[in-house]
User: Fold these one by one.
Assistant:
Number 1:
Amino acid sequence: MQESWQLGRLRKMNKKRLSALLAACNTMKRADNSSLDPEVSSLVYDSRDVGPGSMFFAIPGAHTDGHRFIATALEKGAAAVVFQTKDEFVSRLIQDGIPDDFPRDIQLPHPVFIAAESSRQALSRCSAAFHDYPHRDLTVIGITGTDGKSSTVAFLHQLLNDLGIPAGFISTVAMQTGTETRNNMLRQSTPEAPDIHRLLAEMRANGKQAAVVESTSHGLSRKTSRLLDLEYDGAIFTNISHEHLEFHGSFPQYLSDKTNLFRQLKDSQPDASNTSVAVINLEDPNFSYIARAAAERSARICAFISSQSGDWPRTEARKDLDLADILFAAHPVEHLSDGNRFSLRVVEKSAWSGQPAGKSLKQLIDQTEALEMHLPIPGGFNIDNVLGCTALLSELLSVPVREIAGAAAGLKGVKGRMVPLFHGQPFTAIVDYAHTPGSFTKVFPLFRESCRGRLIAVFGSAGERDTAKRPIQGAIAAEYADILVITDEDPRLEDSMDIIRDISRGARESGHAVEIHEIADRRSAISAAFSMAGEGDTVVMLGKGHEGSIITAAGKQAWDEESVARDCLEQMGYTRQK
Ligand SMILES: CC(=O)N[C@H]1[C@@H](OP(=O)(O)OP(=O)(O)OC[C@H]2O[C@@H](n3ccc(=O)[nH]c3=O)[C@H](O)[C@@H]2O)O[C@H](CO)[C@@H](O)[C@@H]1O[C@H](C)C(=O)N[C@@H](C)C(=O)N[C@H](CCC(=O)O)C(=O)O
Ligand SMILES: Nc1ncnc2c1ncn2[C@@H]1O[C@H](COP(=O)(O)OP(=O)(O)OP(=O)(O)O)[C@@H](O)[C@H]1O
C-alpha cells in the first residue's frame, strides 16, 4: 500500500514542459516551426507503451527501426516525437518520399517534432531531467564485470541495510525501490534510461540513501546510452572474460564499455571531501587500464585480491598495486561445504609505497594484521564478491571493517546461484547460473573438488549472442565433467541443434575423455541427467539460475529451473527434505 501510494504521488509530480526537457538536452532541436510547449507525461521508446502526452523516442534497433512506429505513436496521442537525424529510415523518407503503406489519415494531436543526433542519447538526458536527477540525492554504487554482478549487488544491498544505511537496488534477479523486493521481469539486467531514472526516483521518494545498480556492459555502452547520465559515487569491477562480443564487436571495446562505469564516477577534484571510490580486482590483468580511468576522476582506488588459486598473484599484480591507494586481501581462504572462511587484511599504501623494492605482494599481505571472516555462502568466488563490498563500504562510507565482518556472517545467498536440492536422492543436485567461460573456470574446479563420483553437467548457450564462447564452454566443461548433457538455454530464433553442436565441437576438440548427450528440450535433459546419476555423483544445472523463461522461436515459455529440477526428482520418487 505504502509503495503504491508513493508511486502514485511520484507519477503526478512527473510532468514536465517540453521546453524544460529541451533545455536539459542540447543535442535535441525542434524540427518544426510551432511554438507549442506541451506538457510531457511520460518518456517512451516503444510505440506500444505510448499514451496521451507521451514523448516518443524513435530508436533504430537490431530487429526493426523505431522510426517506423512514429505514426502509431502519434495515433496513440504522443505529444512529441524525437527522431534521429542520421537514421536510415528517415533518410530514405527524405530521399524517396513517404511510402504507400505509411498511414497518412491520422488525426495529428498537434505533435512537436524534435531532431536529435542520437535518440538514445537524448532519451538518457531527458530521463535524468524528467525525474529531477535522482542520482544527485543518492549515494549511487555501480557494479560491473562479466561474472558476479548480481551476487555483489545482492550482498552489498544486504550489508548496507544491515549496517543501517537504507538502500535500494536494481539487478538481473530482482529490484527494490521501497520495502518490497520485486523479481526483475524485464529480461534486462540494466533497464533502459527512463526506467533507471524512474527507479532511482522511487528510491529517493521512499527515503533511500543509497542505490546499488547492476551496470552491464550493454547499459554502459554508448550504443545503448542506458546509463549515460548516471554519475556514480562508487564502482566495483569484479572481472572480465569472454562474453557479449557479438554486441561490443571486440574484446578491447567490451573492456572499454565496462570501464565507462569508472569514467562516470563523480569527479572528486573540486570537492575532495566527497571522494568517489573505485574498487578493482587486482587479479584481473586489466586492473591498470581501469585504475587509470578512475584516476582521471581523482577517485580513491581500492584493489582487492584473494588467494583462491595456487598460482596467485598474477605476475604483474605487484607492479599494478602502485596505482592503488589501499589493498583489501583475503588470505588464507578456506572453502567449507556450506560457506567460506578467510582472513581479511587491509594493507595501507604506506606498506608498499616508498618502501625499498623487493617485498612481494604475498609478503606485504602476510605482514598485515588479520581479521577472521566467515561467509555462510558456498562458492570461493563469493569471497571476491564480498571483498569488493567490504572495500567499498569501508572506503566510501567509512564503515569499520569489524562491523562489515559481523554483517557478512549473516549474508544470504542469491536465487539460482549455487542452490543445492535436497530430495533424499543418492546424488548431489545443484542449480547455478554460470554461463560464461569465466564463471565456468571458477565453478567447475569447485564441483570437481567436492564430487566423489561422476560429475554430470547440464547446460547450453544463448542463441543470437556471442557464438565464439560456445566451444570454449564445451572445452572447459569437458576438462572437469565426466558426462555433458548439452541442451537449450535461450535459443531465440537460432536452431537449437546448431548451438548445441557448437558446444559439443569444443568439448570433443578439447581432447578430454567425456561422454556427450545432445538433448535440446531442457526438461528432458535434466531428467536424463538425473536418471544417469548414481550414488556419489553430482549433477550441475547451469545457465538458467533465476530466469523466468526460455526464449525460443515460438516465443517466451515460462521456466523455473529449480522447480523443474524438483519436479524431475519427485517423478523419480524422491521427496523434498529442505
Ligand atoms: C541487444 C539489445 O540491447 N537489444 C535491445 C534493443 O533491442 P533491438 O535493437 O532488437 O530493438 P528492435 O526490436 O529492433 O526495436 C527498435 C526500436 O523500435 C521499438 N519498437 C519496436 C516494435 C514496435 O512495435 N514499436 C516500437 O516502438 C523498440 O522498442 C525499439 O526501441 O532495444 C530494445 C529497446 O530499447 C531493448 O529492449 C533490447 O534489449 C533486449 C531485451 C535484450 O535482450 N538485451 C540484452 C542483450 C541486454 O541488454 N543484456 C544486458 C545484460 C548482459 C549481461 O548478461 O551482462 C542487460 O543489461 O540487460
Ligand atoms: N566473482 C565471480 N567470479 C566468477 N564467477 C562468479 C563470480 N560470482 C559469481 N560467479 C558465477 O557466475 C554465476 C553468475 O553470477 P552472477 O549472477 O552474480 O553474475 P552476473 O555478472 O550478474 O551475471 P549476469 O550479468 O549474466 O546476470 C554464478 O552462478 C556463479 O557460478
Number 2:
Amino acid sequence: GGGAEQKKAAEPTAPSPADKAVVSIASLASERLGIADRVAASKWGTDKPIEDPPREKQVLDDMAKRASDMGVDGEAVQRIFRDQIEANKLVQRGLHQQWTAAPATAPTTRPDLAKEVRPALDRIGGDLLTAIRDAQPVLTGPQCAASVERARTQVAASLDELHRQGLERALLHACR
Ligand SMILES: C=C(O[C@@H]1C=C(C(=O)O)C=C[C@H]1O)C(=O)O
C-alpha cells in the first residue's frame, strides 16, 4: 500500500494562469502578424510606404494610455508593442519581396487600411494588453525566458517561415 500517495518526481506542474497568459501573448502576436498580410496587401501597388511613423506613435501612445487606465506597467507595454510593430514591418517587407519575385502570388484586391485593417489591429491590441497584464508575474520573474520560449514554439508550429521569424521578433523583449 501507500503507492497512491507516492509523488512522481517527473510529474510536470500544471501551467499557471500567468503561463497561459504568456501563450495568449504569443497567439495574439501571431494573430497580429496574420493581419500584416492584409496591411501589406493594402499598400501593395501603391506609393504608401510600409513604415508609417505617425501611426506607430499613435499605436504606442494609445496603448500606453490604455495600459495606465488598466493599471498595467506602461514600460512593458511600450516595449512589447514596439516589438509587435517591428515584427509587423518585417512580415510586410518579406511579403512584398515574395510578391515582387513572384507576381502571380501577389494579392489582387486591396483592403482599406484605415477602415478595416487598422481597426482589426486595434482590437487585437486591446486583447494583447489584457494578456500582458495577466502575464505580468511571469514576465517579471525568473522563468520568463523559458515560458516565452515554450509559448513561441507552440504557436510557431502552425506558421510559415516568414511569420515564424515575425513571431520571434514580436516576442524578442517580452521579458524585462
Ligand atoms: C501595420 C502598419 O504598418 C506599420 C506597422 C505598424 C503597426 O504594426 O502597428 C504601424 C505603422 C507602420 O509603420 C500600418 O501602417 O498600419
